[in-house]
Amino acid sequence: MPLALLALAVVAFGIGTTEFATMGLLPQIADGVGVSVPQAGNLVSAYALGVVVGAPVLTGIGARIPHKRLLLLLTGLFVIGNAASALAPNFGLLFAARFLSGLPHGALFGVGAVVASRLVAPDRAARAVSKMFLGLTVANIVGVPASTALGQQLGWRSAYWTVAVIGLIALVALALFVPHQPRGQLSGIRHELRAMGNRQVVIGLATAVVGFGGFFAVYSYLVPMLTHLTGISDTSTTLVLALYGVGMTGGTLLAGPLTDRALRPTLYGGLALMAAALVTFYFTVHSTVPALITITLIGAMGSLITTPVQMLLMAKAKNAPTMAAASNHSAFNLANAGGAWLGGLVISAGWGWASPNLVGAALAVAGLGLAYTGGLMDRGGPRSETITKSMGPAETSTAGEGTEHQRT
């Protein structure tokens, strides 16, 4: 089990590295393919678009493929996309390669979360999922700064080659350590789409888009906030972003056991505390030490939300959790785009560099309202279940005898 979770964490590490490394290498990429820096910024959007499209489409296509085989196919596509990024001779092909690289992102996290939850006892499922997500947070501490430094010294293509190698290592680890998990009779695109129509799944995805939009409203403009208001030099911002990653790692470590114990209270608390931290940052951003402490807390609260949302969607999707789990990452990328857009609006309106914090806090409170609405809808009805043990081919739609469940 630990080696299987480690293999999934390596996949998450590679995804986190390739998703954010492009942002740190935009000047080098722009020079390399002969475009302006703002035009090169469209490569970030290309990757995000790939995530949004790929999560439901690829999980739908692979709805009847056993989970281990699907993980291997998706990781192979991830390697191909990053190798194509490294080889792209011009901006058009690089744009297409970044879109290709983003396609397996959400599906890998969705399938990986389902696999991780079924490797352990039901009362430890969230801890297993959070351990996979640790790879993503460690990427913010180690992978992104290292790949950025490598790309600056050896050329931007070397960063994508490095990610492709990480993908190959993950591919081997998955093949060796992840056990086979057969699909049950309830597998298939029809069952996955039916689960996506569940009102609680829709509310859960809306919570992710709106609530996590508050996180990205601030994260997107963190560097200019630090340089314009806190007085931190450009050369030191990388270290501050690593500190942000430390907070995210701490939040992920807390999220697993807390979600296993009390899913909805963990989600409510994470959103409420993130709103409070963002309002606090509006006032502490002008002073270095309080600003750094608040940044760490914002990172922690952002990660504290991720695991309970993931587990909630898997619970509400019941016997067909894969597409819902994958679509969570489409929701996060929509949150990234929407939060950054709203944060940019208030800056452009002349409200000041600190103003995205207030926008972020408002979005976090709105996300809390959505989450609480979902909780109210659960009252008085049957409690939902997420299957934490693969269903055998003879089991029926009611989840046959011997199947383990986690109740939320």
UniProtKB/TrEMBL annotation:
<keyword id="KW-0472">Membrane</keyword>
<dbReference type="InterPro" id="IPR050189">
    <property type="entry name" value="MFS_Efflux_Transporters"/>
</dbReference>
<feature type="transmembrane region" description="Helical">
    <location>
        <begin position="133"/>
        <end position="152"/>
    </location>
</feature>
<dbReference type="InterPro" id="IPR036259">
    <property type="entry name" value="MFS_trans_sf"/>
</dbReference>
<feature type="transmembrane region" description="Helical">
    <location>
        <begin position="334"/>
        <end position="353"/>
    </location>
</feature>
<feature type="transmembrane region" description="Helical">
    <location>
        <begin position="103"/>
        <end position="121"/>
    </location>
</feature>
<feature type="transmembrane region" description="Helical">
    <location>
        <begin position="267"/>
        <end position="285"/>
    </location>
</feature>
<feature type="transmembrane region" description="Helical">
    <location>
        <begin position="235"/>
        <end position="255"/>
    </location>
</feature>
<feature type="region of interest" description="Disordered">
    <location>
        <begin position="382"/>
        <end position="408"/>
    </location>
</feature>
<keyword id="KW-1003">Cell membrane</keyword>
<feature type="transmembrane region" description="Helical">
    <location>
        <begin position="291"/>
        <end position="313"/>
    </location>
</feature>
<dbReference type="Pfam" id="PF07690">
    <property type="entry name" value="MFS_1"/>
</dbReference>
<dbReference type="GO" id="GO:0022857">
    <property type="term" value="F:transmembrane transporter activity"/>
</dbReference>
<feature type="domain" description="Major facilitator superfamily (MFS) profile">
    <location>
        <begin position="2"/>
        <end position="379"/>
    </location>
</feature>
<keyword id="KW-0812">Transmembrane</keyword>
<feature type="compositionally biased region" description="Polar residues">
    <location>
        <begin position="385"/>
        <end position="400"/>
    </location>
</feature>
<feature type="transmembrane region" description="Helical">
    <location>
        <begin position="70"/>
        <end position="97"/>
    </location>
</feature>
<dbReference type="InterPro" id="IPR011701">
    <property type="entry name" value="MFS"/>
</dbReference>
<feature type="transmembrane region" description="Helical">
    <location>
        <begin position="44"/>
        <end position="63"/>
    </location>
</feature>
<feature type="transmembrane region" description="Helical">
    <location>
        <begin position="158"/>
        <end position="180"/>
    </location>
</feature>
<dbReference type="InterPro" id="IPR020846">
    <property type="entry name" value="MFS_dom"/>
</dbReference>
<protein>
    <submittedName>
        <fullName>MFS transporter</fullName>
    </submittedName>
</protein>
<keyword id="KW-1133">Transmembrane helix</keyword>
<feature type="transmembrane region" description="Helical">
    <location>
        <begin position="359"/>
        <end position="377"/>
    </location>
</feature>
<dbReference type="GO" id="GO:0005886">
    <property type="term" value="C:plasma membrane"/>
</dbReference>
<feature type="transmembrane region" description="Helical">
    <location>
        <begin position="201"/>
        <end position="223"/>
    </location>
</feature>
